[in-house]
């Protein structure tokens, strides 16, 4: 299937664009920018549409730009890098509105202009990489006829390929120091003969690498290995000498069938057990808020824009004197402590025990005696007993994971009927699903998209709801 002179009409979901065949069939096109005109090759028929890719361009979109990354198109992480950043923000803002109006049946909201990030590149403070003994070869490499005797690599999983890793040279989303640290670890491990993990055969030593940083350019390195190797100690000593900005180094033995780090015991090899990140207080003459970020802590990956997100959340909560606030899915308590600057009482809930311990430590660290945290499964802990312990809230803030809120949590919110509800979401489709149910008792007043993830299809969304 091939169609010529197809005009790409608009951006769709997940970095895919929408067009139509001359017969009116919907085309979902990868590699395109809204406004492009060119040839589309279809590769998969679905009910109601055809999936295709842009083979060639006869008229480029006015928003099309040259991608800065040599891995663009292979990596899969930066799906919008070929589109000028202001256009990306506009496309993603419209997607939020489309989801909430079409899926959520939201008809009452005022949609604010999306807030663009101050930096379109070099903004990520956390990146996870995989080692591979058998890295992915590009089509050009396979066509070259060259024999690759060393297939070791360190980078990202190639899209749709669980056992293939793209060896990354430079990632433009991370600060320069992150690229230098990763490249040094890869090359030093090769020179020391430390075997990279074979994902399919499940053998080898080096398994995953996580890099975290703060805005002071201090770094934490977390290494997972699948079997001991004498070269690991030399690798750690060399890293300490080569990079004084690495102030914390952890490693952990992972012999499981998956790479998840959250149930892996980690050993602090050297340095500080955590990084410190700070945010300016909204209270005049108050010291900045400081957060301890450990190897398993959740913290927004774009710290500059996270501060914008939290300030906007506080602004939309419109807290008055004496307010009692619940923070659902509180993580390490960053939003809760931001709210605690002006609220009389804040209660946070989170399912991860380590996150709640970090939230309590951060509350103590910042001198907040009005912030309280409980651990447990949200659908079970957020119940009448919890409400009796903490008192009925005047405002609820919820920031669930990408899957949105469990139906039982939505039911409890409908029954609770707090006067105000602020819903922060990293997935406007599941946010829309939940808002449709919540509108039985709430009115959606304002929606504010906030872009924390330039070059990707992700967009945060804050919705303010008031009781009908």
What do you see in this structure?
The protein is an alpha/beta fold and 468 residues long. It has 3 domains: 2-63, Nucleic acid-binding proteins (OB fold (Dihydrolipoamide Acetyltransferase, E2P), Beta Barrel); 89-119 and 277-467, Vaccinia Virus protein VP39 (Rossmann fold), CATH 3.40.50; 126-276, Beta Barrel (OB fold (Dihydrolipoamide Acetyltransferase, E2P)), CATH 2.40.50.1070. 25% of the residues lie in helices and 29% in strands. The chain has 11 helices and 23 strands. It has helices spanning 85-102, 139-144, 176-191, 231-242, 303-317, 334-340, 353-365, 378-381, 384-390, 407-416, 428-438; strands spanning 2-7, 10-11, 17-20, 26-30, 37-46, 49-59, 110-111, 126-132, 153-157, 165-167, 206-213, 219-225, 246-253, 267-271, 275-279, 289-293, 324-328, 345-350, 371-375, 395-398, 420-425, 442-450, 460-467. The strands form 4 sheets. An 8-stranded mixed beta sheet has the order 7-22-23-21-20-17-18-19, with helices on both faces. The protein has a 7-stranded mixed beta sheet with strand order 10-9-8-11-12-13-14, covered by helices on one side. The protein has a 6-stranded mixed beta sheet with strand order 1-5-6-4-3-2. Strand 12 (219-225), helix 4 (231-242) and strand 13 (246-253) form a beta-alpha-beta unit. Helix 1 packs parallel to helix 11, helix 3 (176-191) packs antiparallel against helix 4 and helix 5 crosses helix 6 (334-340). The model has no long low-confidence stretch (mean pLDDT 94).
């Amino acid at each position: 299937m091939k169609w010529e002179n197809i005009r790409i009409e608009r951006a769709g979901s997940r970095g895919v664009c929408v067009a139509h065949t001359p017969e009116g069939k919907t085309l979902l096109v990868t590699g395109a920018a809204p406004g492009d005109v060119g040839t589309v090759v279809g590769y998969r028929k679905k009910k109601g549409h055809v999936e295709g890719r842009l083979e060639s361009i006869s008229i480029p979109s006015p928003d099309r730009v040259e991608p800065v990354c040599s891995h663009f198109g292979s990596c899969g992480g930066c799906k919008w890098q070929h589109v000028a950043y202001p256009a990306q923000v506009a496309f993603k803002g419209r997607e939020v509105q489309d989801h909430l109006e079409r899926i959520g049946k939201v008809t009452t909201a005022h949609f604010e202009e999306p807030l663009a990030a101050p930096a379109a590149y070099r903004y990520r403070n956390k990146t996870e990489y995989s080692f591979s003994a058998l890295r992915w070869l590009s089509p050009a490499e396979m066509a070259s006829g060259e024999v690759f005797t060393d297939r070791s690599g360190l980078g990202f999983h190639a899209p749709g390929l669980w056992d293939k890793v793209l060896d990354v040279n430079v990632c433009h989303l991370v600060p320069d120091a992150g690229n230098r640290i990763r490249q040094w670890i890869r090359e030093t491990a090769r020179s020391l003969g430390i075997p990279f993990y074979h994902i399919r055969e499940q053998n080898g030593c080096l398994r995953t690498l996580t890099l975290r940083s703060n805005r002071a350019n201090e770094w934490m390195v977390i290494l997972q290995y699948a079997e001991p190797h004498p070269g690991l100690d030399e690798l750690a000593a060399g890293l300490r000498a080569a990079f004084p900005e690495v102030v914390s180094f952890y490693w952990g033995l992972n012999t499981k069938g998956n790479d998840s780090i959250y149930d892996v015991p980690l050993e602090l090899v050297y340095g500080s057990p955590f990084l410190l990140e700070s945010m300016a207080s909204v209270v005049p003459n108050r010291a900045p808020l400081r957060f301890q970020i450990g190897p398993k802590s959740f913290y927004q990956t774009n710290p500059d824009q996270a501060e914008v997100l939290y300030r906007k959340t506080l602004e939309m909560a419109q807290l008055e004197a004496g307010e009692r606030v619940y923070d659902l899915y509180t993580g390490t308590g960053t939003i809760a402590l931001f709210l605690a600057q002006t609220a009389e009482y804040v209660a946070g809930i989170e399912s991860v025990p380590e996150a709640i311990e970090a939230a309590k430590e951060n509350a103590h660290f910042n001198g907040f005696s009005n912030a309280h945290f409980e651990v447990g499964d949200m659908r079970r802990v957020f119940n009448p007993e919890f409400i009796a312990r903490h008192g009925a809230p005047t405002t609820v803030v919820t920031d669930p994971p990408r899957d949105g809120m469990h139906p039982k949590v939505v039911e409890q919110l409908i029954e609770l009927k707090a006067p105000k509800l602020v819903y922060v979401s990293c997935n406007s489709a599941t946010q829309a699903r939940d808002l449709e149910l919540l509108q039985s008792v709430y009115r959606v007043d304002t929606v504010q998209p906030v872009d924390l993830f330039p070059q990707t299809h992700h967009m945060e969304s804050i919705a303010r709801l008031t009781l009908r």
